Amino acid sequence: MKTLPKINNMEEYDNVIENNDKVIIYWNTKWCPDCFVSRRFMPIIVNDFEDFEFYQIEKNQNLELAAHLNIYGVPSFLVFVKGVEVGRLVNKRRKSYNEVKEFIQNTISK
Question: Percent of the chain beyond pLDDT 90?
Fold first, then answer.
């Protein structure tokens, strides 16, 4: 998988959100078994939504940012359009390709 660009701090997060029209942020950790599963289908999700910029944030390396954004479970997904959060799929459950794709489609079709 082509590695998604990483956001490493609040400043980078703000810059990404402010300077991109459509953004999806994928929260994960290196140790999370459910994140390992979702990493396998992320290239397909990226291809499914080519008009979005995708980034990833490693939760354990960004605990302050995670707390600020109420990210308590991984893998999780945040969707932004023109700097505004329009959807979030945040919980501790394993997510399937179909669940993530449907979440994004439903979020952006509102």
Answer: 92
The pLDDT tens digits for 76-99 are 999 999 999 999 999 888 999 999
pLDDT band at 47 (very low <50, low <70, confident <90, very high): very high
One-letter amino acid at 34 equals D
- Domain boundaries, given as residue ranges, for the chain: 10-108
- State the pTM of this model: 0.94
Select the CATH number that applies to the domain covering 10-108 from these four: 3.90.78.10, 3.90.1720.10, 3.40.30.10, 3.30.565.10. Answer: 3.40.30.10
- Give 3-state DSSP helix, strand, coil % of the chain, rounded to 5: 45, 25, 35
Q: What is the CA radius of gyration of the chain?
A: 13
Closest CA to 103 of 41, 15, 17: 41
Identify whether the C-beta of residue 28 lies closer than 8 Å to the C-beta of residue 1: no
